[in-house]
C-alpha cells in the first residue's frame, strides 16, 4: 500500500462515480501539494524520495508460490503512463495514451500523469532511453506514483532496467490488459483462458518480477535494498522449479480448455442442425455491444463504462420483425494491439464470430476517429477467419456523436446504419436490416397440420418464416418458408411446395 496516510484510501476513491473521482483526486493533490508551481528544493526531493523508497519496499513481487501467478493482481494504484511515439501524428500518440489511461482506470488505477517520448524506435535497454528514464523517475517522485505503465509490450530486460531507474513497479500494456481480463472473466472457460495467457506472459518474466532476484543476478554488488530477501542461494533452482510447474499447469489448462471448447462446439452444431441463423455482435471494447444486445433482446447483460466488461460470450434468442428466430451473441471487445497471448487464448471464443451468419460490427460513433477502431477489429476478424462473414456496421452512440463523423462513416461504409442503443434511435431500422440480411430459408410450403402435431407447428415458428397462419376445423393451415429438412417433415401435410 502507499505510505501516504491520506484520509481516503485510493481504493475508496476508485469506487466513486467518475466525476467525483476526479474531484477527489484534485482534493488529494492539493492536500499533498502536488498541484505545484514547479517549486522544488532539495528537502522536498529528499522527503518524497524516502517516501517512494518505502513504497518500493512494500511492493514485493517475488513469487512465493506458483499459484500466485494465477491469482496475482497487479494492485495498481497511482500510476504514471509513458508512451514512445515512433510514427504518426501527435494526435495519434495522444489518443493511444488516452486509451491506455482508460485501460488503467478500468483496472482500478488512478492516473496521475502521462508522458510521451518521441523516438525512432523504443530503446532496447530502457524503452524510453536512460536520460528520459531519469526524468520519468522525477515525475514518479513528484506525483507519488507507485507504478509506471508503458504503452507497449516490453521485453523482460526492458522492464527490469526501467524498474531499476524509476524504482517503482513497471508494467506494460499487455500486463494491464491481462489484469483487466483476469478481473472480468466469469465463466470457467473465460477464467482458464485468461490464466493460460497470464502464465504464458509470466513465464519469461519470472525473474523480472522477482525484483530482488533480478538485481542480484544482473546488478552485481550494487547492494540495493532487495538484497535481504530470502532468495539468495537456491534462487535459480527455485525459479527453474517454478517454471517447470507453470509449464505443467499450462499443459493441463490447455487440455481443459480444449474439452470446454468441444462441449461448446457441440452446442453450436446443435443450433446449426436446427438451422437457427446466428448473429454475432462484435466490435471495439466499450462500443456498446452489450447495450445493443440488451436493446435488441431485452436481455440483462452487464453494461459498464469500462473496457472489457464482457468477457464471456452470451448467446440470446432473438426474433426478427417477421418472426424468424435467430441467436444473437455478445462477444469480447477488441482493442488495438490486443496482446498476442490473449488472441491465442480467446481464439476459440472469437472463432464463434467466424462461424456466424452475420456480424453486427458495433463501433462507437462518438469516438473522434471510429475508422481506427473499425480497422483494428477487422484485423482480428482476419486473424480468426471471420473476414468473409457478411457484416453490418452498426454506428452506435449516435445520440452523442458528431454529425460530421456520422456522415463520413455512413458514406465510407457500404452496409452501415447509425443507431443509439441508449435512446433506441435507429433500432427498428437495424432490426429490419438484420431481417433482410440473414440467410433465408429456401422452400415455400403450404400445409395443413393436424392439431395433434402442435410441436411441428412450434418448430416451424422457431426456425421458419410464417407467411400466414389460420386455425381451421382440421388443423393449422400454414403458408411458410422453411429449410429443406423441415419441408420434408411437413411433406405429409403439404398442399403445395415450390422452390
Ligand atoms: N451515449 C451513449 N452511450 C452508450 C450507448 N450505448 C452504450 N453506451 C455506453 O457505453 C458504455 C459501454 O457500453 P457496453 O454496452 O458495456 O459496451 P461493450 O461494447 O459491451 O463493452 P465491453 O464489453 O467492455 O467491450 C456504457 O457506459 C454505455 O452506457 C449509446 O447509444 N449512447
Ligand atoms: Mg460488453
Structure description:
It comes from Actinacidiphila guanduensis. It is built from 20 helices and 14 strands. The chain is of the alpha/beta class. The protein folds into 3 domains: 240 residues, GTPase HflX, N-terminal domain (Rossmann fold, 3-Layer(aba) Sandwich), CATH 3.40.50.11060; 163 residues, P-loop containing nucleotide triphosphate hydrolases (Rossmann fold, 3-Layer(aba) Sandwich), CATH 3.40.50; 56 residues, 2-Layer Sandwich (Alpha-Beta Plaits), CATH 3.30.70. It has a 6-stranded mixed β-sheet with strand order 6-7-5-8-9-10, sandwiched between helices. A 4-stranded parallel β-sheet has the order 2-1-3-4, with helices on both faces. Helix 7 links the parallel strand 3 and strand 4. Helix 5 runs parallel beside helix 8, helix 8 packs antiparallel against helix 9 and helix 9 runs antiparallel to helix 12. It is elongated, with a radius of gyration of 28 Å. The N terminus is likely disordered. The site of guanosine-5'-triphosphate (GTP) has 22 residues, from helix 13.
In short:
It contains 20 helices and 14 strands. With 499 residues, the protein is α/β, with parallel strands linked by helices. Bound molecules: guanosine-5'-triphosphate and magnesium ion.
Amino acid at each position: 500500500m502507499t505510505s501516504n496516510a491520506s484520509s481516503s484510501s485510493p481504493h475508496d476513491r476508485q469506487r466513486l462515480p467518475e466525476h467525483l473521482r476526479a474531484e477527489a483526486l484534485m482534493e488529494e493533490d492539493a492536500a499533498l501539494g502536488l498541484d505545484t508551481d514547479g517549486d522544488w528544493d532539495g528537502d522536498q526531493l529528499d522527503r518524497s524520495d524516502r517516501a517512494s523508497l518505502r513504497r518500493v519496499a512494500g511492493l514485493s513481487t517475488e513469487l512465493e508460490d506458483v499459484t500466485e501467478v494465477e491469482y496475482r493482481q497487479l494492485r495498481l494504484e497511482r500510476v504514471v503512463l509513458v508512451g514512445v511515439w515512433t510514427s504518426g501524428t501527435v494526435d495519434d500518440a495522444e489518443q493511444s495514451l488516452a486509451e491506455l489511461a482508460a485501460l488503467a482506470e478500468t483496472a482500478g488505477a488512478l492516473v496521475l500523469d502521462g508522458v510521451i517520448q518521441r523516438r525512432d524506435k523504443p530503446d532496447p535497454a530502457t524503452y524510453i532511453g536512460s536520460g528520459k528514464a531519469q526524468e520519468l523517475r522525477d515525475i514518479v517522485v513528484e506525483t507519488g506514483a507507485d507504478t509506471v505503465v508503458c504503452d507497449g509490450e516490453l521485453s523482460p530486460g526492458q522492464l527490469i532496467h526501467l524498474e531499476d531507474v524509476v524504482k517503482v513497479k513497471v508494467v506494460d500494456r499487455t500486463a494491464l490488459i491481462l489484469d483487466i481480463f483476469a478481473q472480468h472473466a466469469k465463466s470457467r472457460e473465460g477464467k482458464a483462458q485468461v490464466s493460460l495467457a497470464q502464465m504464458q506472459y509470466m513465464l519469461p518474466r519470472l525473474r523480472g518480477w522477482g525484483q530482488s532476484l533480478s538485481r542480484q543476478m544482473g546488478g552485481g554488488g550494487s547492494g540495493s535494498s532487495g538484497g535481504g530477501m530470502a532468495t539468495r542461494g537456491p534462487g535459480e533452482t527455485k525459479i527453474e522449479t517454478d517454471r517447470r510447474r507453470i509449464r505443467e499447469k499450462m499443459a493441463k489448462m490447455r487440455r481443459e480448455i480444449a474439452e470446454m471448447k468441444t462441449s461448446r462446439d457441440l452446442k453450436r452444431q446443435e443450433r446449426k442442425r436446427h438451422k437457427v441463423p446466428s448473429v454475432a455482435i462484435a466490435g471495439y471494447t466499450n462500443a456498446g455491444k452489450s447495450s445493443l444486445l440488451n436493446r435488441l433482446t431485452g436481455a440483462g447483460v452487464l453494461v459498464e463504462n469500462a473496457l472489457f466488461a464482457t468477457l464471456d460470450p452470451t448467446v440470446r434468442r432473438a426474433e426478427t420483425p417477421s418472426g424468424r428466430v435467430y441467436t444473437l451473441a455478445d462477444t469480447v471487445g477488441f482493442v488495438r494491439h490486443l496482446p498476442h497471448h490473449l488472441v491465442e487464448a480467446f481464439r476459440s471464443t472469437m472463432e464463434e464470430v467466424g462461424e456466424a451468419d452475420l456480424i453486427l460490427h458495433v463501433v462507437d460513433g462518438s469516438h473522434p476517429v471510429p475508422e481506427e477502431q473499425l480497422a483494428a477489429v477487422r484485423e482480428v476478424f482476419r486473424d480468426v477467419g471471420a473476414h468473409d462473414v457478411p457484416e453490418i456496421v452498426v454506428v452506435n452512440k449516435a445520440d452523442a456523436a458528431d454529425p460530421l463523423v456520422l456522415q463520413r462513416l455512413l458514406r465510407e461504409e457500404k452496409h452501415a446504419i447509425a443507431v443509439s442503443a441508449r435512446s433506441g434511435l435507429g433500432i427498428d431500422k437495424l432490426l429490419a436490416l438484420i431481417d433482410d440480411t440473414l440467410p433465408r430459408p429456401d422452400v415455400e410450403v403450404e400445409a395443413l397440420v393436424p392439431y395433434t402435431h402442435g410441436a411441428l407447428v412450434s418448430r416451424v415458428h422457431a426456425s421458419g418464416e410464417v407467411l400466414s397462419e389460420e386455425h381451421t376445423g382440421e388443423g393449422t393451415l400454414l403458408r411458410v418458408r422453411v429449410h429443406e429438412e423441415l419441408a420434408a417433415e411437413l411433406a405429409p401435410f403439404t398442399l403445395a411446395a415450390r422452390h
